[in-house]
Amino acid sequence: MFRDSSKSRLILAVLLAVTVVLLVMDVRPGTNPVTSVARAGGELAFSPAAAGVSWALGPAVDLYEGIRQGAGSAERIAELEEANAELENELDAARLDQGRADQLEDMLHLSGLGGYEVVPAQAVTRVTSQGYAHTVTLDVGSDSGVTSDMTVVNGEGLVGRVVDAGPRTSTVLLATDGTSAVGARLESTRKIGVVNGGALPGGPEAEMTYELFDMDVPVEPGDRVVTLGSHEGAPFVPGVPIGSVEEVQVSPGALSRTASITPDVDFASLDLVGVVVAGPAEDPRDSVLPNDPDPEEDDR
Length: 300
Fold this sequence. Notes:
Blueprint lengths: L5 H21 L6 H82 L2 E11 L7 E4 L12 E3 L4 E8 L4 E5 L6 E6 L5 E6 L10 E5 L11 E4 L13 E9 L7 E7 L8 E7 L16 H5 L1
Antiparallel strand pairs: 1-2, 1-12, 2-5, 3-4, 3-12, 4-5, 6-7, 6-9, 7-8, 8-11, 9-10, 10-11
């Protein structure tokens, strides 16, 4: 620290004079070698100090900027997260709509092949009612032309039959219910039998069981089964795919042969279905069944 003496005052006066001279020369147009040298010397002398100050104050400046902009950034992040959630919901809805559109297309294709007139419906709940174990409630009823003993299908095959119809809802007994019995026939031999819901006592676990009336009828795993059809199409119209033979069981002394059936319909994920309000003019036979895969192509 300078002492207040005549020498220090003289040095201060000289520095002030030099500063004024340099300022005057610096504002003059053109370049001046004297001021250039002086300016370069000043930058050389003070740059390290300025850099040190900037380095020391950098975190504080950043902290200040973060505090100043923090509220706005949080709001912007919240807005972006909300917009992202809305997009995800829209995407899920689009996927759901596309899935239902595909189901509707498959069901209309099946009904077109069989000549069935259907009323589309959604399986809104799966409940136990009226002593049945496997039933679903549809969002259509008598106001849409639905009555009891109508066949219910989806794009894969037989779902069940209507057992009760109110004005706007109806109850469907699924083909897998233990009380369900559907007249059926084999695709290959056209031999008839009954498809019952659930497994027969003492038989293998199954969602459906096919009981053939003729003991001599050849049955092999993979044989496909369709509905035989009821009188005037109630409760079942003919030609609807039911499922495929999984395992054949022969009981000594029995009067019929039984086989466990793998359903064509995925009953665990029922969504869009169709109630057949008018049956075909004639039996579609096996035309509703999908094309049987070529075994030679499967071996390739």
